[in-house]
Amino acid sequence: MTGRTGRRAGESGTSEAILEAARTQFAEHGYHGATIRAIAGKAGVDPALVHHFYGTKEALFAAAMQLPIVPSQVLGAALEVGRDGPALGEHIVRTALTLWESDELKATFLGLIKSAVTSESAAVMLREFLAESILGTIARVTRVSGSPAEVQYRAAMVASQMIGLAMARLVLKLPAIADASIDELARSIGPTLERYLSGEMDVPD
Amino acid sequence: MTGRTGRRAGESGTSEAILEAARTQFAEHGYHGATIRAIAGKAGVDPALVHHFYGTKEALFAAAMQLPIVPSQVLGAALEVGRDGPALGEHIVRTALTLWESDELKATFLGLIKSAVTSESAAVMLREFLAESILGTIARVTRVSGSPAEVQYRAAMVASQMIGLAMARLVLKLPAIADASIDELARSIGPTLERYLSGEMDVPD
């Protein structure tokens, strides 16, 4: 392999070069700081080609991280289904647990948690990705209202409970939580999320 | 160093040998499976001496993990103070955040999370330690009632929110949560913990 001078000329070589450049840029500049333009520059292609291949920065991030889905799309679509139902909180818990525990996502999801805990740059990347993509999707679909700061705070509260649920169930495997069914957890945790999204709550200025 | 045949005869050599044996036994057998008897055997001392030096298995665990405190003692004492007050949930959040963010504990606490996420045996150890020591303390001091399974489930729900708060604030540093004050977080999350401890909730059989 050492004699090779670079990627092949074909499309898969180009897309591999883009993904490689994306991984480097996301790691060095975080999710927020990485730009399609810089990634294209690093890969030696036109930014339009990156847009053509991947569409959005998030979709490129998902491909670079080998996520089998674009999280905000799948989450958004799943949340849409139940957002007008009587138990939005339960619906969020059920949606998240079903996604995490799917065969395609479980290993990747655990890998993301692991890298965020062990690497500062991965933590930055995941934080910005959560803040821009996931929390934004939750806020938009569930129609949290308030100032931008309030919306971020409420969505972050939801995230804190859901991240803890993932840690307790998938990483630590606390028996009481690991042995519970998705429905049981949804009933227990749903009301918490509803209060965080729209209940009475003091929100920092 | 390689020519040495073992610990010195003095007390500090003996206590170092006990801690070394404890670290090995906790790692190999988990918190639950490790026994004072086996640790003493490994260290070549009488079990009574281990009890004399460390008192309880938890205190030995804390010393072996270089925790500057015995968690259930400090948590228990702090919770006692506020358990009859009007806002037990807020009190738990305030107590935990103040402990975690103290200069003595922060690095150790982050180290425990990191090791649990990256090592299966550390995860087992931490899970059993949480279940036996921390959740038990929460349940006892806050007087959660119900069957043993219900008490474990309610305490584990509290843990899921608190672990997620730690991840969001200390590891991922989500801005909305990292920038909030301890008091603000206590007011937001307190009611969640109260519902988990004593509110109406379906509990798995």
Structural features, described:
Two copies of one chain form a homodimer. By secondary structure, chain A is mainly α. Chain A is 75% helix and 0% strand. In chain A, α1 crosses α8 (120-142). Chains A and B meet through α7, α8, α9, α10 and α11 of A and α7, α8, α9, α10 and α11 of B.
Largest sheet of chain A, in brief, is:
none
* SSE series of chain A: HHHHHHHHHHH
Rg of chain A, nearest Å:
19 Å
Distance between the termini of chain A: 57 Å
Number of strands of chain A: 0
Q: Give the % helix of chain A.
A: over 70%
Strand content of chain A: under 5%
Secondary-structure-derived class of chain A = mainly alpha
Low-confidence stretches of chain A: 1-9
Kindly report the average pLDDT value of chain A: 86
Shape of chain A: globular
Assembly state here?
homodimer
Output the number of helix runs of chain A: 11
Largest interface: A-B, 50 and 50 residues
List the helices and strands and how they pair.
2 copies of one chain form a homodimer.
Chain A: H1 11-33, H2 36-43, H3 47-54, H4 57-64, H5 71-82, H6 88-100, H7 106-118, H8 120-142, H9 148-171, H10 175-178, H11 182-198
Keyword list:
11 helices, 205 residues, mainly alpha, disordered N terminus
